[in-house]
Specification:
alpha+beta; 31% strand; 214 residues; 4 helices
């Protein structure tokens, strides 16, 4: 069997440069998830990871009759807090252990994922996936700084559009029509497809590489 190194040398140059290993990332996510569960048990008052419903006002609801593109009615409208990110976010797809071309999340605030290529920003062709399956949405949200003051930051979120077979975040099926915040090295899966999409933040990756070099 061809080794992972041989597969990289076969032409997956960008993966060598990014130094991404899907198994390593998954192990790190499992370890972080276990720590998070333990912390939640030890400290019941700790706030859980943000899970929000979308804005159901006219400008931000999941609409069925107010947003049309290429003659197709879109199930989703962006919320008022939608914003194009300044930080460099990427999706790294993997089919098994084999890396696929990197997807750059830039120049727009939302990315529709689904089988309908006439409207999808990121096509997912597996038959178990819906035509309009999920949306990766960047939102400018408030956060508390270390000094106690409040600031604004643009963060990525995933929302499942009531798909037939669901969206999975780090192996857990998420509830439909709710926003789930994404962080560096989170892993997304859609329907029954074996493909995994690793969320990467370029700035965080550079910090990690500096720390490893020390």
């Amino acid at each position: 069997m061809m080794s992972k190194r041989d597969r990289y040398e076969r032409g997956e140059k960008y993966i060598k440069e990014e130094k991404i290993d899907r198994r390593t990332i998954k192990e790190e996510k499992d370890e972080k998830t276990n720590k998070r569960i333990k912390q939640e048990k030890d400290v019941p008052s700790e706030k859980p990871k943000e899970i929000e419903k979308p804005n159901y006002s006219l400008s931000g609801k999941l609409a069925e009759d107010t947003n049309t593109f290429n003659g197709v009615v879109i199930k989703y409208n962006e919320p008022p807090e939608a914003k194009i990110p300044i930080q460099k976010w990427r999706l790294f797809p993997f089919k098994g252990d084999d890396p696929l071309p990197c997807l750059y999340l830039r120049k727009q605030s939302a990315f529709l994922l689904g089988r309908d290529r006439s409207v999808a920003d990121i096509p997912i062709d597996h038959p178990s996936c819906s035509k309009q399956h999920a949306v990766l949405q960047f939102r400018c949200v408030s956060f508390e700084k270390k000094d106690g003051s409040t600031g604004k930051k643009t963060k990525p979120y995933i929302i499942d559009l009531a798909s037939s077979n669901g969206t999975y975040l780090n192996g857990e099926k998420i509830e439909a029509q709710r926003y789930y915040e994404l962080i560096h090295k989170d892993i997304l899966k859609f329907g029954y497809s074996s493909r995994e999409y690793v969320v990467m933040n370029e700035e965080v990756k550079e910090i990690d590489q500096i720390a490893e070099a020390k």
